[in-house]
Write a structure and sequence with these properties.
Blueprint (H helix, E strand, L loop, with lengths): L1 E3 L2 H16 L2 H18 E2 L4 E2 L2 E3 L4 E3 L4 H15 L9 H16 L21 H16 L8 H12 L21 H7 L3
Antiparallel strand pairs: 1-4, 2-3, 4-5
Helix pairs in contact: 1-2, 1-3, 2-4, 3-4, 3-5, 5-6
């Protein structure tokens, strides 16, 4: 079939923990190679966002820039970086992908601190789950020194935006229901309204 962006989060953390549990670096190497593979196929250099799907039959990307899908990708890479030793030969390559993604996603952050359901369409609604994932990954990067302190402002802005999504019953609002992948904006905006 191809590569689906959110699948990276379903496999990479597992392999990292398996490598640690079994004390077998082949699983960490597998997680690293998979993350680099996803970036090579799904990253759009011009838009600086990740496509949600790469179809083998089509030999190319498919779908709109889905917020939560991009969130799952960067969560996987952020988790992966916590397991890669500083002297690993591919650590810098993973860090480069992580930094490129963060620099790109910050460009899409709204004035309210949120990111949108369709990331390159600022008129679409603010989506809380991807906003939370991006905020976490930015702040984690600053804390771990993977990013310099200039990124802290975007992280704080994201956090302040997230605080506005908690209602008086202490529930987080603005989260879209489970999503598939589509090239039809109405799928995300009508069928997957929060």
């Amino acid at each position: 079939l191809g590569l689906q962006i959110d699948d990276l989060y379903m496999i990479t953390p597992y392999w990292c923990r398996k490598a640690e549990l079994l004390n077998d670096s082949k699983w960490l190497d597998r997680a690293i190679d998979e993350s680099l593979h996803y970036f090579d196929y799904l990253w759009d250099k011009e838009d600086k966002l990740m496509h949600p799907l790469w179809l083998k039959k089509r030999k190319g990307p498919y779908g709109l820039y889905w917020g939560r899908g991009n969130g799952w990708y960067i969560m996987a890479v952020t988790d992966l970086l916590t397991y890669i030793p500083d002297d690993h030969p591919k650590r810098n390559e993973v860090l480069e992908d992580y930094r490129a993604f963060i620099a790109g996603i910050i460009q899409r952050q709204g004035k309210d601190g949120h990111w949108r359901q369709i990331l390159d369409r600022p008129e679409t609604y603010a989506e809380t789950s991807c906003s939370g994932m991006f905020t976490y990954c930015i702040l984690k990067g600053v804390n771990e020194k993977w990013l310099d302190s200039s990124f802290l402002e975007a992280g704080k802005k994201g956090w302040q935006g997230l605080l506005t999504t908690v209602n008086d019953q202490f529930e987080i609002t603005g989260v879209c229901p489970p999503s598939d992948i589509s090239e039809d904006p109405s799928y995300y905006l009508k069928g997957r309204a929060p």
